[in-house]
Amino acid sequence: MLLRNCLLVSDEAIRIAVEDHAAGTPWHQVTRNGQAIVANSARSMAKMFMEGHDLGSRPVLHTVTAPLLALSVLSVHLIRHPTSRLAGSDISVSDSGPRGCLCVC
Hints:
This protein has one domain (2-104).
């Protein structure tokens, strides 16, 4: 939850807060790189859901909450970082992900 919320805070505010509260702690880098960690986790979650759909396997969870949350996190990340190297891939996942969710419902 903490890392997901970092998508809504400016990069400068995150840097200042991490330096004030987490300097010298084991979780300093994790907190500092929270936006990248959240985006990578969302990509992995969406990828697993789509690969399972492509293989025809039934999802373990009969809800679309997790994939939709992953897609919303990717959308916010795209808005915050539109020029990132993975933006094209994120757009593709955001485009094809909801189609898989619709098929499950």
